[in-house]
Design brief:
317 residues, alpha/beta, 13 strands, five-stranded mixed beta barrel
């Protein structure tokens, strides 16, 4: 066991993707800015990083991401208008995003894969361990996983991935880890990683999801990693090298098994589930929305003018 006292304070958030699965909504709006109820999905990711003690956030962006940058910047005219109206509640909501963390940006330039996006953070991160949070993954704040991952990094050194068990028929959608148990529940040693394997040949049903705590040695490995699946530089390939060489400086990979609530906001169905789940739990929306959902389900989606009028109006019979 390798113990390290290096504190992790920096988070890297790759956000250069085109969001093609949500076209035409993402033609002019970054996918990361799609609202989950009334908050952009990306703000939940930054809040998660800050809650884990990561107060320095670097976005890896690309073209057409100006709206994302503006969201975390001051909006003086809007703030002054709300203040003049005495609308302090909405003013606080507007100011909240600007006060979350120290925010930085660097452009990826070319869409050469997640590994290339992480490599773009090298100058900012330098020789420190750091976290990577993918903007498509929304982890429920009540099921925070980053603190556990940071603890594993402090205990074992090396890099840490977040793993989630999925049905075997779906493992081909993810990076997949070959693992063995440790003496800590839900913490495993990762021996190998395969990007989007054939389900019949996958080494396990543990999928890598979008949270990582990485040793800075990953930059050297990424720089030497050739394009892999899809002609892109895969972070999975670099982590595979580090997993296979645990004795090299910064080597070794462990996994934390996540068993909480997680939404893929890059997937339409999962995105809608996140919106509904978070909305029904809010005091201002939940009671009326739950009643409407009960009526909608009771109607069994049978087509008739009466049923559809009832489903369209919350609280109607």
């Amino acid at each position: 066991m390798v113990s390290t006292t290096e504190q992790v304070t920096k988070a890297v958030v790759p956000a250069a993707g085109l969001g093609t699965r949500f076209l035409p909504a993402t033609k002019a709006t970054p996918k990361e800015m799609l609202p989950v109820v009334d908050t952009p999905a990306i703000q939940f990711v930054v809040e998660e990083a800050v809650a884990a003690g990561l107060d320095d956030v670097l976005f890896i962006t690309g073209r057409n991401k100006r709206n994302l940058e503006d969201h975390f910047d001051r909006a003086y005219e809007l703030e002054q208008t709300l203040a003049a109206k005495g609308d302090l509640e909405r003013l606080a909501l507007v100011e909240e995003a600007t006060k979350l963390a120290r925010i930085h940006y660097v452009r990826q330039g070319e869409p050469l894969g997640l590994g290339h996006a992480v490599l773009m953070a090298e100058q900012h991160v330098a020789h420190e361990p750091f976290a990577v949070l993918l903007g498509d993954d929304l982890i429920d704040a009540r099921d925070a996983v980053l603190p556990a991952m940071l603890d594993v990094r402090a205990r074992y050194g090396g890099s840490v991935v977040c793993l989630m068990e999925v049905p075997r028929e779906r493992i081909g959608l993810y990076g997949c880890a070959a693992v063995s148990a440790t003496d800590v529940d839900d913490v495993v040693r990762v021996h190998d990683l395969v990007e989007k394997p054939d389900p019949a040949e996958a080494p396990s049903t543990f999928a890598v999801i979008g949270r990582y705590v990485l040793d800075p040695s990953v930059f050297e490995v990424l720089a030497a990693t050739p394009p892999g699946r899809g002609g892109e530089i895969q972070l999975t390939d670099a982590l595979r090298t580090l997993a296979a060489e645990p004795d090299r400086p910064g080597g070794g990979v462990h996994g934390v098994i996540f068993r909480g609530r997680r939404y893929d906001t890059g997937d339409k169905l999962s995105y809608l589930q996140a919106v509904v789940r978070l909305a029904v739990e809010r005091d201002d929306l939940g009671p009326e929305l739950r009643e409407w959902l009960r009526e909608l389900v009771a109607a069994d989606f049978t087509w008739s003018p009466e049923v559809n009028d009832a489903a369209a109006t919350p609280g109607s019979a």
